[in-house]
Amino acid sequence: MASLTGKVAIITGASRGIGRAIALKLAGNGASIVVNYAGNAGKAQEVVAEIEKLGVEAIAIQADISKVADIQRLFEQTLERFGKLDILVNNAGIAFYKPISQVTEEDFDAIFAINVKGTYFTCQQAAQHMAEGGRIINFSSSTTVMMLPTYSAYVGTKGAVEQITRVLAKELGAKAIAVNVISPGPTDTELFREGKTQEQIDRLAQMAAFGKLGDVQEIADVVAFLASDEARWITGQNIRVNGGIA
User: Fold this and answer.
1) I need a surface site. Which of 139, 142, 190, 219 has the fewest CB within 10 A?
2) Which residue has the higher pLDDT, 229 or 204?
3) What is d(CA 96, CA 119) in angstroms, rounded to the nearest whole number?
4) So what's the pLDDT on residue 204?
């Protein structure tokens, strides 16, 4: 069902993984897509080509969301091309897992710059330019409630995103803009597997009620629901899409 026909969506970090799956899902539902990427232009253009095969418009825009000037340019180019914005999905993020004694200032600044600063200032641009009745969908993680050693910096960023989402849901409610956050569990992506042994991956998979890792399509399906008119009465919520892991 093409429930998003006529809508325009920005998906940050959309050249691979969950972001790519979201871009294709929303496009399949009729939305025009802005495929944001930081560095891999080739992968981003592949996503654009896949979307265009579905019969909808798409454009790839490079922007480092840790930089406010890049964020502003991302929105300017989106509005130049499509004339409006209806949906923002803040998918881009980075992760590392270190004991607190090993986290450097550079590590800390980098992860907060992308995961928190990037989310905050893309939301700021959306608040200024998004059409009434729009949707902002941010990304946290189910690890915020799991007390996993070595995750302190990562979950710190995601806890911040959850609180930003709650406040903005109330702040932007007058424009009928719904603001929600999705908290995936362990999901089989390159980012998830980075820095983990197979034993660690298997152990995390078995923690889910279904005994497996999540799939990117399972996350994309929930994003598509939150972006749709069917979710118009849902805002300020943290949706844990995690197979019962927490």
Assistant:
1) 190
2) 229
3) 18
4) 85
Give just the sign of the alpha carbon dihedral 181, 186, 190, 196: positive
Q: For each of the domains in the chain, give its residue range(s) and CATH number, in order of start.
A: 8-241 (3.40.50.720)
With pLDDT > 70 as the criterion, what percentage of the chain qualifies?
A: 99
Q: Count Cβ neighbours within 10 Å for each residue of 100-137 and write b for 16 or more, e otherwise.
A: eeeeeeeeeeebbbbbbbbbbbbbebbbeebbeebbbb
User: Is this model's pTM higher than 0.90 or not?
Assistant: yes
d(CA 243, CA 246): 8
Q: Give the CA distances from residue 225 to residues 4, 153, 202, in Å, rounded to whole numbers and listed in that order.
A: 10, 30, 29
- Nearest Cα neighbor of 181 from 201, 157, 153, 149 is 157
Joined together, the tokens standing for residue 13 give: 């970090």
Catalytic residue check, 37: no
